Amino acid sequence: MSPSPFGREAPASDGYDGPDAGLLAPGSAGSPASSTTSDAAYLRALLDAEVALTRAQAALGLAPEEAATAVSSAAVTGSFDLRDIADRARAGGNPVIPLVADLTKAVGAEYGPYVHRGATSQDIMDTATMLVAVRTLDPVLADLERTQRALARLAAEHRDTAMPGLTLTQHAVPTTFGLKAAGWRSLVLDARDRLKAVRDGLPAQLGGAAGTLAAFGVFGASDSRALVAAYARELGLAEPLLPWHTLRTPVVDLAGALAFTAGALGKPAVDVLTLSRTEIAEVSEGSGGGSSAMPHKANPVRSTLIAAAARRAPQLAATLYGSLVAEDERPAGAWHAEWEPLRDLLRLVAGAAGNAVELTEGLRVHADTMRRHLDLTHGLIVSERLAAELAPVLGRARAKELLSETAKRVSAEDRSLAELLAQEPELKALDVDLADWTDPTRYTGSAGALTDRALERR
H or E segment at 99? Predict the structure, then answer.
């Protein structure tokens, strides 16, 4: 047994003591987010924030160029002991404090005083979090782009592929798979646009001990705003209007966009889960997953993992929204509560986006099955059309009465709606085209035009 920082004995290692490998997170294991949100990635972002601070001060003549060079040279991720920094972080409540001590020592006595000069821990932690978010969102946006292109192809190819529309789990009226895919794509584009807008606006954080930038004036900065601007430029982040230690708009905007993205990807996933059921089988994943017990199974695993992410994301975002209630000039607990749920949310969405690419690019659409299913209710799926067509000639009340009585007979006698209506004297006298009126493929309304309109969006 090995000692624990909590004063208890820790279980002996079996030889693996590395970072989280994603054993319980198959939805995101192996995605780019596994590396962009790892502890090592956060360490890299923290060091980048410290380097940028010294470089920004040097650019404005507030620190010698040699100090910026020395800090940059010392900020090598592999030179720092992650486990040791994590253990020592408990003393001050965040990893910046022990990291600054180690970085200052690595820089040396001459330029060590320029490390972290004027900043507070939250400046560095918030800035690093924004860097991690940007580095994670870039591949997510690329995956969303691939997904929308795949859905655009499906929508165009199946513009006129008729299928049963489902409302409250039951056949309603016919729709088209093209319109369904176009709707999925619309959600993905909404997510893409929201994430891109958030990513482009993620700001650096620099405020000093209580958000006044006071220490930088002592160090010679005549206009601290120029330093903030230089700092943001060094990092490639947006320049904040104000220090946002307790103004958490950037975090909640990010949380909202991520939760929306998870839900936007979850919609096609749950539709595929329904439509790929054995008894429906209107679509299937390109490569289903196996079962540990049943050799015949080809489970819709990609959809399953996306749906799982969509169910977890809102609760993670809720924690981040709760941190808006941050007291004073720097909060105790609200800021700290953000770190893990935000990282989990980034990982979930990145994994879902990657799975969405595989799902949509490999999705198989079984149009023949969709067509057969239109006839499962023996024509009742077009009862809405018949009611509209017959009302002007029979009167609304009589048309409703006739269709209600005939619908009961369809179920009881297992005969088609068209066959039974053709026997009605009232309709024989009217010489109506029942074959056309009861053809479900001819009652998809404006589905084709709506699909075309949706596909105009880029």
Answer: helix 96-107
Confirm if 131 and 49 have CB atoms less than 8 A apart. Answer: yes
Choosing from 330, 343, 347, 385, the catalytic residue is 330
Token pair for residue 407? 């619908």
Residue burial 177-202, b: 16+ Cβ < 10 Å; e: rest: bbbbbbbbbbbbbebbebbeebbeeb
Q: Which residues contact 402 (CB under 8 A, 6 or more apart)?
A: 390, 394, 421, 424, 426
Phi, psi of 124 (to 5 degrees): -75, -40
What whole-number distance in Å separates Cα of residue 20 and Cα of residue 416? 59
SS (H, E, C) 324-372: CCCCCCCCCCCCHHHHHHHHHHHHHHHHHHHHHHHHHHHCEECHHHHHH
Q: What does the alpha-carbon distance between residue 300 and residue 133 come to, in Å, rounded to a whole number?
A: 30
Tokens for 379, please give them.
Answer: 């024509």
φ, ψ (nearest 5 deg) of residue 355: -65, -30
Give pTM, 2 decimals: 0.91
Q: Which residue has the tokens 């299928």?
A: 163
The residues with which 9 forms a beta bridge, in sequence order, are: 3
The residues with which 203 forms a beta bridge, in sequence order, are 238
Return the amino acid letter for 296. H
Residues 282, 369: Cα–Cα separation, whole Å: 6
User: What's phi and psi for 344, nearest 5 deg?
Assistant: -60, -40
Instruction: Of 229, 55, 231, give the one whose Cα is nearest residue 131.
Output: 231
3-class secondary structure, 453:
helix
Angle at alpha carbon of residue 301, lines to 21 and 185, rounded to 5°: 105
Cα(first)–Cα(last) distance of the chain, in Å?
A: 58
Q: Using one digit for the tens of pLDDT, what is the confidence trace for 410-442? A: 989 989 998 898 888 888 777 778 888 889 999
With H, G, I as helix, E, B as strand and everything else as coil, classify residue 174.
strand
Say whether 87 sits in a helix, a strand or coil: helix
Catalytic option among 4, 79, 287, 291 = 291
- The 3-class SS string of 287-311 reads CCECCCCCCCCCECHHHHHHHHHHH
CA dihedral 278, 283, 288, 294 (to 10 degrees): 10
Contacts of 200 (CB under 8 A, 6+ apart): 238
The string of pLDDT tens digits covering residues 319-355 is 999 999 999 888 899 999 999 999 999 999 999 999 9
Q: Annotated catalytic, 330?
A: yes
How far apart, in whole angstroms, are the C-alpha atoms of residue 401 and residue 251? 58
